[in-house]
């Protein structure tokens, strides 16, 4: 029980810090005021990227042993990206469990560490939108299109951006 209350206190503090000092490029809040473990996040498509002008909503779900384990982040808005699974789950190194990568793709230092905060996670997602990693894609189809048909990729992303603007 102690770890759940520690996680709650930390999440409460991170939420308060974000409200006091908002970060350009995203906003965050609770999905339900009574649950600190589920956050609603909106990532604004970074300037000078294919995602510019988009408003992409996601749900960030924290485990009870946060910050020892990473949250999961799942876009609820349509998004076409090599590092986002078809179901919207984000696949970036810092969201992978701490320690050595069983597949040998990532260094332990690239994976989750308790020093990460909601802010560092979302900044990593913004960075991911700016430069996809097609080396170990979550969405193979998007990665293939990114590599082989940049124009088709651009069109598909544009549709996602327009759709995200209509949802406002």
Distance between the termini: 39 Å
Provide the β-strand percentage band. Answer: 15-25%
The residue fraction in helices comes out at 25-40%
| Mean of all residue-level pLDDT scores | 93
Q: Would you tell me the structural class of the helices and strands?
A: alpha+beta
SS field, number of helical segments: 4
- The number of E-state strands comes to 4
Unreliable stretches covering 5 or more consecutive residues: none
Order of helices and strands, N to C?
HEEEEHHH
Spatial arrangement of strands, main beta sheet: 1-2-3-4
Approximate shape:
globular
> How can the largest sheet be summarized?
4 strands, antiparallel
Radius of gyration: 16 Å
Question: Please, could you describe this protein's structure?
Answer:
By secondary structure, this protein is α+β, with helices and mostly antiparallel strands. Helix content is 35%, strand content 17%. The chain is built from four helices and four strands; from the N terminus they run H-E-E-E-E-H-H-H. Helix 3 packs across helix 4. The radius of gyration is 16 Å and the shape is globular. The model has no long low-confidence stretch (mean pLDDT 93). Accepts the ubiquitin from the E1 complex and catalyzes its covalent attachment to other proteins. Involved in the formation of multiubiquitin chains. Signal the protein for selective degradation. This is E2 ubiquitin-conjugating enzyme. InterPro entries: Ub_conjugating_enzyme, UBC, UBQ-conjugating_AS, UBQ-conjugating_enzyme/RWD.
Considering the chains and any ligands shown, give keywords for the structure.
168 residues, alpha+beta, four-stranded antiparallel beta sheet, 17% strand, ubl conjugation pathway, ubiquitin conjugating enzyme activity
């Amino acid at each position: 029980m102690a770890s759940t209350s520690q996680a709650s206190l930390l999440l409460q503090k991170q939420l308060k810090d974000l409200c006091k000092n908002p970060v350009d490029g995203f906003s965050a809040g609770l999905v339900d005021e009574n649950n600190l473990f589920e956050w609603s996040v909106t990532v604004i498509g970074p300037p000078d990227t294919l995602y510019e002008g988009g408003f992409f909503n996601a749900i960030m779900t924290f485990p009870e042993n946060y910050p020892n384990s990473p949250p999961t982040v799942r876009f609820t808005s349509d998004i076409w990206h090599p590092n986002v699974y078809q179901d919207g789950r984000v696949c970036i190194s810092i969201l992978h469990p701490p320690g050595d990568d069983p597949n040998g793709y990532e260094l332990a230092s690239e994976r989750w560490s308790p020093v990460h905060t909601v802010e560092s996670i979302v900044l990593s997602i913004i960075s991911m939108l700016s430069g996809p990693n097609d080396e170990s894609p979550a969405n193979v189809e998007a990665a293939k299109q990114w590599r082989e048909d940049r124009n088709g990729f651009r069109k598909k992303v544009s549709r996602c951006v327009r759709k995200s603007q209509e949802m406002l």
